[in-house]
Each structure stands twice: as C-alpha cells, then as structure tokens.
Amino acid sequence: MIPRIHIITLGVADLEKSRAFYRDGLGFPLSPSSQDSIAFFQLGGLVLSLYPYSDAKDEAEYFSRKSDGYGGIGLAHNCKSKDEVNEVIALAEAAGATIIKPPVDVFWGGYSGYFLDPDGHPWEVAWNPFFNFDENMNLQIG
After folding, report:
1. Closest Cα to residue 71, out of 60, 79, 86?
2. Cα–Cα distances in Å, from 65 out to 13, 68, 71?
3. pLDDT truncated to tens, each residue of the chain (142 aa)?
C-alpha cells in the first residue's frame, strides 16, 4: 500500500450553508463533480467532501460521534508566515467561522489559531518554522 489520503469527508447539517462557507467564504474551488447532495473541493492532491448527516443514514452515527466535545478529527491549514495565519483566520471569521483561539505564538515554536466551520469542525491555521513548501505549495515536513 502507498500511504496517502485522497478524500476527507465532513458530515454537515446544512449542505448549502457549508458549501457557501467553503466556496464563497474561504475561496475553495468547487469541483464540477459536485452534486445537489454532495460537495467536492479539489485542494491540490486532496479532496474535501461535504456530505449531509441526514443523507448518510447508516454512516451518520460515525460522522457525528463525539466524546468530550472533540469529534476525533482536526483539519489544518499551514501557512508560510505568521501574517498569512492572521489573514486566513480573518478570512474564516468574515466567512462566518467561530474563532475559538486567536493566533498566538505556541510552545513548540510556531504560531497558530483555531476556528470552527458552520458545523463545528475544528480547523487549525498554523505557521510551523520546521515545515517548508515546494514550488507547488505542497507541504514538506522533515
């Protein structure tokens, strides 16, 4: 097996609201493969999928399972600078995100903040001085 992830699916309560948040608010490119019942966003080599809880039927309980307020998934957007972190957090807030931790210098040497999308999915926006990006903006760690 070649280790990789192709699609991350987020269960959402209101598909149109979430589609608008990611497409219009954050500027994610909506894929033409999207349908009325599902949204796909092509993000480099990864696809973010939005799928309504109500349509997931048997799978819905797995999407919505949470313990102590943490649903077991965290999404991260890494930036090239602290200023870019601030810009992304401001963009998310303007799009309707709830800022749960404004960007600050963190103990591991980076800078990060957190927001929740309209369905409460947590996103970290971070600058990590130990990470680099290649010429195509693919994250390079190590």
Report:
1. 60
2. 14, 10, 6
3. 666 777 888 888 899 999 999 999 999 999 998 989 889 998 888 889 898 877 765 554 544 555 555 556 778 898 999 999 999 999 999 999 999 999 999 988 999 999 999 988 889 999 989 888 788 777 776 5
Q: Find out whether 81 and 89 touch, Cβ atoms under 8 Å.
A: no
Backbone angles phi, psi at 83, to 5 degrees: -60, -40
Under DSSP, is residue 97 helix (H, G, I), strand (E, B) or coil?
coil
Contacts of residue 7, Cβ cutoff 8 Å, sequence gap at least 6: 46, 47, 48, 49
Predicted structure pTM score: 0.79
